């Protein structure tokens, strides 16, 4: 509990009137002091009840980068049967906080808090602080709520543009993909729907069938790559790992399969989002587990 400026002023005024009542013996001053002390007691009890019976759930996003701001999802639950809670501020590790003006009895409210973690690796949020100036901003009372939220902080990407493993144009030195495209080999003939480029129209077959026919092409995909974070550009391990994060994101964004050779293991190339998060997790934990 900490005093606010209005609270300090209230206590000072109460003490001054109390001293005056003792020195003068004036009954009216005694009544005023009693009323002030009674009001302070009632507000104290109300503020104490306001932050009791609360629980908190925190969910971290699945993609967090070191020293970059992201948002955590918060749900605060009021377990009290009869009394709502007002003017709550929830502060979590990572510097984030969220305000809740009203949480009804036996109800919950959702919010988000901006957080930032300075280093890569596993983070655990074990506690949160709930504070409130309710009811009259004389005192800010707080309580600690337990948490069990875990996440992995990825290294912040560091561009390494001089690294030539990723061609600027997909398809240069590439291979055929099973997905549809416009630059691979012909794998089917279909009717023209009006969305295909004119260059894909098969004019000879169209003249023979009396309707427009288009060529279905396969897409061109780049050759898979395997990254070794210990052999990437960088002045130290951290820069090499950050370069690896940048390359993984850039490759998969370009639909190029990418894998990883780390800690004596080889992770096969792929392009899915789950695979990308797995590679980033391996890089985040490389050398610290």
Automatic annotation (TrEMBL):
Transmembrane segments: 7-22, 28-49
Keywords from the named record: Membrane, Transmembrane, Transmembrane helix
PANTHER family the record matches: SLR1927 PROTEIN (PTHR34351:SF1), SLR1927 PROTEIN-RELATED (PTHR34351)
Protein name listed in UniProt: Uncharacterized protein
Lineage: Bacteria, Pseudomonadati, Thermodesulfobacteriota, Desulfuromonadia, Geobacterales
